[in-house]
Design goal:
The model has no long low-confidence stretch (mean pLDDT 90). The protein is mostly helical and 285 residues long. The chain has 2 domains: 154 residues, Orthogonal Bundle (Tetracycline Repressor, domain 2); 125 residues, Four Helix Bundle (Hemerythrin (Met), subunit A) (Up-down Bundle), CATH 1.20.120. The radius of gyration is 19 Å and the shape is globular. Helix 2 runs antiparallel to helix 3 and helix 3 runs antiparallel to helix 7.
Length: 285
């Protein structure tokens, strides 16, 4: 076994540290949306750590199985491709992260929260081994992982609030759209390794249409709180910026699936999600 992780930067890129922190913060946001009064909670702290570790395990495993496709697609942002992290080190990081996440959840969280962590760990492994190359299945799984932290935060404190459910649904549809866009961008490498992703099966044009549909559903869901549980809270208004950004991406993507538009769109949708998170959080305080 050859273990090599050249630097902390290489490790952070392997596990997508920024994504892990976002998932962990999502747990706190989900708890706030479910009625947490901001008092110190050791369970929520454990929930944060568990969420981050689960994300570490999933992304390290992803890079381990994606080496051939990433080399073909010239993904120089992947430390394994640059030989700064060895495949053996990546699989070891993944296994250790999953084991620690499940152990912490088992000993320190309630049974419902542990069940979610355990189930997602198993499905994440299945995703990387077999599901990711199936049309749409892999995209929907990643979208679920983007949605779960908000629900998980509610589970950790004993109950999921209605705002957390809506934010989770919005995150799911935006996540599905972003993942389909990523698959459109990765078609050359995916085709060479025999993957059957959605764009390979139905083409870039119709895959883009599906992504646009996902963004439209997210925009619709984001409007519902204006007329229900956030109807009296002007602090929710910034979510309109989220909708405008998603609409712009949808309009451009409808007629243009070039690599530049796909990369720009994925960044824009990430910023849109961040603004949406802030809007839900402000309106819930």
């Amino acid at each position: 076994m050859h273990l090599r992780i050249r630097s902390l930067k290489s490790f952070a890129e392997l596990v997508r540290l920024e994504h892990g922190l976002m998932y962990g913060i999502g747990v706190f946001i989900g708890a706030i949306l479910s009625g947490w009064n901001l008092a110190f909670s050791s369970a929520l702290l454990v929930g944060f750590i568990v969420s981050v570790l689960s994300e570490f395990g999933a992304f390290a495993l992803n890079d381990y199985f994606d080496v051939k496709a990433d080399i073909t697609n010239r993904r120089r942002d992947r430390p394994i491709v640059r030989k700064e992290v060895s495949p053996d080190a990546a699989i070891l990081v993944s296994i250790a992260s999953f084991l620690l996440a499940n152990a912490l959840a088992f000993f320190f969280l309630n049974s419902e929260a542990f069940s979610v962590v355990f189930l997602l760990s198993i499905v994440s492994m299945l995703y990387n081994v077999a599901l990711k190359n199936l049309p749409l299945v892999g995209n929907l799984f990643i979208a679920i992982t983007m949605a779960v932290p908000f629900l998980f935060g509610g589970l950790v404190i004993g109950g999921i609030g209605q705002p957390a459910v809506f934010l989770s649904a919005i995150a799911f549809f935006v996540g599905a759209g972003r993942e389909v866009m990523k698959d459109i961008e990765d078609v050359p490498g995916d085709r060479k390794v025999g993957a059957k992703t959605l764009p390979i099966v139905i083409g870039a044009k119709w895959s883009a249409r599906f992504a646009v549909l996902c963004y439209a559903l997210a925009m619709f869901l984001s409007s519902v709180p204006f007329f229900t549980f956030f109807s009296q809270k002007a602090l929710y208004a910034p979510v309109l910026f989220t909708d405008v950004m998603l609409l712009e991406v949808a309009i451009r993507l409808w007629g243009n699936q070039s690599p530049g538009i796909l990369r720009w769109g994925r960044k824009q949708t990430l910023y849109a999600v961040a603004i949406g998170l802030a809007s839900f959080l402000l309106a819930s305080l």
